[in-house]
Amino acid sequence: MKHELCIESVTPGTVSEVMDHTWSTAQQSPAVRQLEGFWSSEFGVLNQAVYLWNGPFEGPRPQAISGVRSREVTLLQPEMPLRKPPSAGNIYELRTYRLRPGTVPQWLRLLHEALPVREKYSRPVGLWSVLSGTPDQVKMLWVYPDLNARMRARAEAAREPVWMEFTKRCLELFLDMHSVILLPGKNSPLA
What we know:
- With 191 residues, the protein is an alpha+beta fold.
- The protein has one domain: 2-Layer Sandwich (Alpha-Beta Plaits), CATH 3.30.70.
- Helix content is 27%, strand content 36%.
- It is built from 4 helices and 8 strands.
- The chain has helices at 15-28, 104-118, 147-158, 161-170; strands at residues 3-10, 35-43, 48-53, 68-78, 91-99, 124-130, 137-144, 174-184.
- Strand 2 and strand 3 (48-53) form a beta hairpin.
- The longest helix has 15 residues, at 104-118.
- The protein starts with a strand and ends in a 7-residue tail after the last strand.
C-alpha cells in the first residue's frame, strides 16, 4: 500500500491546533485511510505539521483550516514495511535524499545491503521512494529516544566499515540531503 506524506506550513503558534483538527478529522473516517503518524517540525523548516497517511487521498482535498499557509503532498512507495518503535516519547528525523536521475534503484540496493549494520545503532521507521512531485528522491524516517542518542548512533555507525563503504559509494549518487527533526503530536500513533 502506498503512503502519502502531507506537510503543512502553518502560522507560528498554531501547529498544535492544526494537528488536533487533523487528528479529529481522521478519527471521523478511519475506514477511508489511517493516519499513521503526525509530527511538528522542531529543527529544519519550522512551523510545519507533518502527516503520514496509509494511502493516497481519494476525492477533493478538504478545505485547509485557519492557520494553514500552504500544503505539500507527496505520494510514497514503501521500500520496507513501516516499523513502529517499541516505546513512546521519541524524536523523529525525516531525511530526504535527492539523487541523480535514474539512480534510486541503485541507491536502494546499496542501502539494503548496508542497513543491517546501521540498524545495530538505530532502526528506520520507514523508507520510501517518491512517486509524485520531484522525481529521484528517497525519504527515510528514523526514530531516536533523544537528540543525544541520534548523535551517538550516527557517530558509531560512521565507524563501521560497511557503513563507511556505503557512504563512499553513495556520494556520486547524491545531489543533496535534507533533514528535519520532528516531535510527535499528542495523539500520534507513532509517538
